[in-house]
Design goal:
The structure is a single chain. The protein is mainly α. The chain folds into 2 domains: 144 residues, no CATH class; 83 residues, no CATH class. It is built from 13 helices and 2 strands; from the N terminus they run αααααααααααββαα. Strand 1 and strand 2 form a beta hairpin. The N terminus and C terminus are likely disordered.
């Protein structure tokens, strides 16, 4: 089974931002697919990262590039000399360059699908549309799953709100760890009757009571079984395929119960310390 992928968590922002650009009509489906395919080979340029971080404007980056055309100087060195960056900000960008948060933005700029100005405007609109603070935007780009779930999975305020968010966040982590390094999760409408070809379910009982299930069409069910089991399964879901999906749900729920108990114990310790 695949291991935990930090890169996968970071690429989640690229996936969400890419679909945002698609929904806004700034890129086509083909251009999005092309950019996602290029993500592993993109070299991250400091200019794009500086715009992404909010340290520089697209116009300032262009000014540095124009200056570079007349002399053999590094981008960061010139940006500091022109007063666009501080030494500390450059250090941050150099550190970020090795992580590559905004891979899809870089890929789209490299391919000429977006200009740097369009990328800057899209980032600002994205932040505004989702009412994100600078800190929340940073956490999303860092692959903070709790922040991503909080932004995209809208759960009505209730006493169980935090429980549901914790469960979904853990599910995303387990999908990254065992199924797919770049999942995309969104909230769906509450439905009274579920129509699906295949379903496995399990009830959680104790301090927290939940009914949990994985419901999907046959092709998705089989792909989930193949990826979790690591075996080349084919045909209609047999006993092994069903057991594999059920085992994944059982693993998710076992970890959720464990984390819930640990959290409860930590809360009790805090109360005793007070």
């Amino acid at each position: 089974m695949p291991g935990f992928s930090v890169k996968g968590m970071n690429s989640m922002f690229s996936l969400y931002f890419g679909h945002y650009l698609l929904n806004k009509g700034l890129i086509t489906t083909g251009e999005l697919t092309e950019a996602l395919d290029l993500m592993d080979s993109v070299h991250f340029k400091l200019g794009v990262l500086a715009v992404n971080a909010g340290y520089m404007t697209a116009k300032q980056v262009d000014q540095v590039h124009q200056t570079q055309a007349g002399m053999d100087r590094m981008f960061g060195e010139l940006a500091i000399e022109l007063g666009y960056l501080t030494a500390g900000q450059l250090d941050d960008l150099l550190s970020t360059q090795s992580k590559g948060h905004l891979v899809i933005g870089q890929a789209l700029v490299d391919k000429g699908r977006l200009s740097l100005e369009q990328l800057q405007a899209a980032l600002e609109d994205y932040k505004k549309d989702y009412s994100l603070t600078d800190r929340q935007m940073y956490l999303q780009q860092e692959g903070d799953i709790d922040e991503i779930v909080s932004t995209y999975v809208k759960i009505e305020d209730s006493a169980e709100n935090e429980i549901f968010r914790s469960y979904v966040s853990l599910m995303v982590r387990n999908v990254i760890r065992f199924i797919d390094s770049s999942p995309r999760v969104e909230a769906c409408q509450v439905i009274e009757n579920l129509d699906a070809q295949w379903l496995v379910w399990q009830e959680i009982t104790g301090p927290i009571n939940l009914f949990t299930a994985i419901a999907c069409e046959e092709n998705v069910f089989m792909e989930l079984a193949r990826r979790y089991s690591g075996q080349d399964l084919s045909g209609p879901p047999d006993e092994l395929a069903q057991a594999s999906v059920a085992e994944f749900l059982n693993l998710q729920n076992g970890l959720f119960q464990f984390h819930t108990v640990v959290r409860h114990m930590d809360q009790e310790k805090t109360v005793l310390l007070i």
